[in-house]
Amino acid sequence: MGQTHIVSGLVTKRAEIDGQIISRLAEIKDLKQVLHHLDRTIKVFSPEFDLRTIRATRTNTRNALFAHGEAQRFVLGVMREHGKAMTSRQMTDAIIKCKGFEIETNTVALIQKNILNVLRRLERKGVVMLSDSNDGILHWCIA
């Protein structure tokens, strides 16, 4: 019973997530109501319109850490400055240092995820490539 602080933290986190779920469900309910009203309005102006033909559009959320194209510029700049093959973690550390980000676990993970996406996109374009390494860790270099 000496781990009550762990249980207390888990209970707090569970309550927080449960609150987020309730909030999102309420938001979904409101959006469904708005959608219903839009459907009815479309039918007023065009009764024969088939609402099933309307496809949902994907919503993209902007990355708050980097401006448009900034992550790619940082990746290429860091790679040019370093001059040899680097891991994505080394690039992440260098970019965190350049941008002056607060070092938090979730921020580091998000930055590294963005960098990996940039690297994969640049690899498809032939700008960067994976280099062979004996240690089994992926190293990236400019093609």
Explain what this protein looks like in three dimensions.
- The chain is mainly α.
- It has two domains: 50 residues; 73 residues, Arc Repressor Mutant, subunit A.
- Helix content is 62%, strand content 6%.
- It has a two-stranded antiparallel ribbon with strand order 1-2.
- Strand 1 and strand 2 form a beta hairpin.
- Helix 3 crosses helix 4.
- It is flat, with a radius of gyration of 23 Å.
- The mean pLDDT is 89.
Write the layout of secondary structure elements.
Layout: H1 4-45, H2 70-82, H3 88-99, H4 105-125, E1 128-131, E2 139-142
Antiparallel strand pairs: 1-2
Helix pairs in contact: 3-4
Q: How much helicity do the residues have?
A: 55-70%
| Gyration radius over CA | 23 Å
Mean pLDDT: 89
User: Mind telling me which CATH architecture of the largest domain this is?
Assistant: Orthogonal Bundle
Largest sheet geometry = 2 strands, antiparallel
Key terms:
mainly alpha, Arc Repressor Mutant, subunit A, 62% helix
What is the gist of this entry?
The protein is built from four helices and two strands, in the order ααααββ. With 143 residues, it is mainly alpha-helical. The N and C termini lie far apart (58 Å).
